[in-house]
Task: structure prediction
Amino acid sequence: MSTTTRGETVRTVPPANPAVDTADVFALLERGRALSTPVLRAAVGRLAPSMDTVAAYHFGWIDAEGRPADGDGGKAVRPALALLSAEAAGAPAETGVPGAVAVELVHNFSLLHDDLMDGDEQRRHRDTVWKLHGPAQAILVGDALFALANEILLEIGTVEAGRATRRLTTASRKLIDGQAQDISFEHRERVTVEECLEMEGNKTGALLACAVSIGAVLGGADDRTADVLESFGHHLGLAFQAVDDLLGIWGDPEATGKQTWSDLRQRKKSLPVVAALAAGGPASRQLAELLAADAKSHDFASFSEEEFATRAALIEEAGGREWTSQEARRQHTVAIEALSGVDMPERVRAQLTALADFVVVRKR
Result:
């Protein structure tokens, strides 16, 4: 089965069965978490009080009262990719640990700031840092994590560490560009699909691309190899974000830790919305009229659940949900094809493929 998207014929079948089973994927994620967390904790421990405590709360290591906790620290996809990246270059997985930690620090810097900018009060079923400790602490701790990321790499003192830092800073700048684009879209009636993909390539794709190349760079890989791995990560990031966009509208709050219709409440021009508006037809036009009226309202608190449900139904009727699902699969396919450009152990190739499969078929 196939469909036409932006002039391209795209297969609509799901991705192939993972080369590594689900248990092995979770083992890869756990390995990334186990190897990177002690170094991450040590890095956070360098922060001045009370920033270290606030950061520990954000990472789920303590609860709101400061007691030790075993909170949900996320899926740890980026650390897993950084370790596999080192192995793709023929180095031990441990070579990628500083890169894994640096990427996680930048990722969490972005989460702290994003939660504040988006007004999100919940992350992983707990109050966000700005909600619990105030906006100033969220900004300061985020800035501190960003500085720590570069410190962790530069203190290695090797040529490879300098190359890795350059890639991380470039990815960080693109991430910030993407966040700025995302915010600007909220105040526009129309955003093109191409603009949305560019924004998501910056906001999500850039850091995943860095994660899947930084370990290889630390392991001595040349720039061509790192660039090919970045291409894999970039397209995987677009697939990852497409799935997140689906979850942002139709995700189960019990699984996402966010409110129902989360992205609609924040007026986000995510892929399903943009694709639905570009589709044409009665549902698309009705959705455009509603969103134009919404843009003039400053109080979404008065909206009922039924009103958000209506908008979600129109997005689906106009084809935005299906288009985004297919785009996730398309980006997944392009990512996997990129791996053919790197000579690496077949075991590592299979594991990278399995992680890519996991990203695209996450519950949505």
About this structure: The first strand starts at residue 2 and ends at 5.
